[in-house]
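Morning. Coffee machine broken again, so started the prediction first thing and wrote up yesterday's gels while waiting. Chain of 269 residues, entered below exactly as on the submission form.
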Amino acid sequence: MKLVDVHCHIYHEMFKDSFDEVLERAKSAGVKRILLSGVNPEGNIKVLSYVKKHPEMLRASLGIYPIDALGIEPDGTGLPVHKGAIDLEQQFAFIRDNLSHVTAIGEIGLDFYWVEKEKTYVQQAENFRRIIRFAKEIKKPIIIHSRKAEKECIDILEEELPNREISVNNHCFSGKKNLVLRAAALGHYFSIPANVVKSQQFQMMVELVDLKQLLTETDAPWLSPYADKPSEPAFVGLSITKIAEIKKMTPEDVAAQIWQNYVRVFGEK
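Came back before lunch.
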């Protein structure tokens, strides 16, 4: 089987002494592609450095996390830190300069978990719209972060992409059933993390969404299916197994379709 992890952060400091071993375990598990997701300028530089070092397996998704964009630092994430608000135009220029190494834009979106909606929505929404328009310009798919902001993200995506000009993948989507169905009707994809083995939310999404709109991710080191160890790309096989069980298909058929979905969304061959 050819497996893919479309969203993870294995440049996290947790993996600084085990990065090569993490890649080896992923290879042994059948993972052929891993998209490293950036969150800010410093993270994007690090992502590109890893991708250039391991071009046979790694791909770059350069992102502007909504909280980082505001100049707010989430507590103790273990990811590279950016001081102050992100200059979007500078980051767009950086991405253009490295476009041959860029597979996707993300993670991007809105976040009302770390900050209050009432105080930040206007600025977050403006940033999000600018980044979507930039992704349309460079014709790259986008990976969406929508923590506690699922409806607001879908509203903006529907307005900004009336003709589905680029593909949209909802990473770790936690919206209710009606929002899952609404996003699916807009042609969005949903990446299913390995903790689908115990998460009713992700199991519900797998039941509702056509297999042709599903992808697999780990969000490593977060969303681990195991209580005693961080998530890593090798675990995407657990997503495949659970999706197969829910869809009443073989893991081989599920993996083959998800690989096709990956090729369609991200232009891989």
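The longest helix spans residues 117-138. Going to sketch it on the whiteboard this afternoon.
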